[in-house]
């Protein structure tokens, strides 16, 4: 079965590469677009849903907002909180945060940014003036004071160690006070690029902000072109009518483009997590030995090579390995089918006459890659006597099922949400079952709940890290998730675009430091 799966993957790869090569020979309908040497043509797969940084939660909206807007704080490559609009801050007590703004900050229209704009931004979210799913992130804010133009004070209703993270860009951006309901039509921020125009289902155009307080970008103009078809995106890069695409091409297409002398593939560590969630209330999966056995039966290294073409690294935690709180010394589940068989026997699930121990069902969306991965898992788990039945539905139905607990196993990705340790509370606290959180598998462990409550209010980072270490070790033993891999950030770009360093979450703010070799003087 394993060899049969590899043959299927090979056939699929051949079909993709053949189609890609054939389209190259036949040309491309989008290939007539002219290239301005001062403009980076950036291909995206879909339009942003809302460029108001208080509202847009999809990845494209937040990535573009990260270029237009700044927030009080940002984060570095190890996901530590660093200054942004605020030059410094203090926490005189666990319920009070005092931020001191940089002086001389200006919005793109020339208006000065003051504490009144910061106060307005958050109060417009909290008082319902802006209808946004982000309101829940700031529910612990009791009041906000602006004692002078450069000082902003947040008062919380209870301690919350991840409060600073909720203030980082691109999750939120500061807007001018009195920004109305139509603000997203022409957003005005303080970021390294300013909004110029947006044409529905076609493009979004940004220009360099020459007065950016962090220093003007080298790139004069960026045009985000909306190209839903992945093959067309690849062709545009190949023909030179586009400059860059980030995490939007299949691994096979990336490998094909690597052969082009004028195209560069930058493969950098990322934080997006591919995982399998298990329903801990299911009669079979409630046994910890079964959950551990399924983890041992999963050959992650083989899957990464076969399906991701090496553009990923195995994951043993929800937190990415570059995170300041990551714990490496946890129970590991290297591929070991013999150990999986022992655990399944010990749990009382012995092979039947047909070699099958039990059937379980994995739910997925209809995404092609996800379905291929599910088929690979079925082949892997059959080796230890587990029959994995696959059920794929369109995303809305799939998501409704998993939020209502109607699953044995499901497969998804965490994109960005695992960059802060509070994700453990959201995913695994017994009090955070839907709709109060994302503990969809109804995992329960009183010891973990106690540790999560401690981590949530511990303000000292080193002490918090020690608590988070215990949390990760405990979860690795209980295995309510099977963590598969962290996907790499894969940037495919033309040679003329240089100096690219992708942030761990795959944000677009690398454009702030990137350079164009053909930029006009």
Treating each run of at least 4 consecutive H or I residues as one helix, how many helices?
14
Distance between the termini: 60 Å
Largest beta-sheet details: 11 strands, mixed
Q: Could you tell me the strand content as a percent range? A: 15-25%
According to DSSP, the number of beta strands is 19
Q: What is the helix content?
A: 25-40%
Shape: globular
**Radius of gyration, taken over Cα atoms and rounded to an integer in Å:** 24 Å
What's the rounded overall pLDDT mean?
91
Structural notes for this entry:
It is a single chain. The chain is an alpha+beta fold. The protein is 30% helix and 23% strand. Strands 1, 8, 9, 10, 11, 12, 13, 14, 15, 16 and 17 form an eleven-stranded mixed beta sheet that branches. The protein has a four-stranded antiparallel beta sheet with strand order 4-5-7-6, covered by helices on one side. The longest helix is centred in the N-terminal third of the chain and has 25 residues. The N and C termini lie far apart (60 Å).
Please give a quick description of this structure.
This protein is α+β, with helices and mostly antiparallel strands and 521 residues long.
Write the layout of secondary structure elements.
Elements: H1 2-26, E1 39-44, H2 59-68, E2 73-75, E3 81-83, E4 86-93, E5 96-101, H3 115-126, E6 141-148, E7 151-156, H4 163-166, E8 193-199, E9 203-208, E10 221-226, H5 230-239, E11 244-246, H6 251-258, E12 263-278, H7 288-296, H8 300-307, E13 312-314, H9 337-346, E14 358-365, H10 368-382, E15 386-393, H11 395-403, E16 409-414, H12 423-428, H13 446-457, H14 461-478, E17 481-494, E18 497-498, E19 515-516
Parallel strand pairs: 1-10, 1-11, 14-15, 14-16
Antiparallel strand pairs: 2-3, 4-5, 5-7, 6-7, 8-9, 9-10, 11-17, 12-16, 12-17, 13-17, 18-19
Helix pairs in contact: 7-9, 13-14
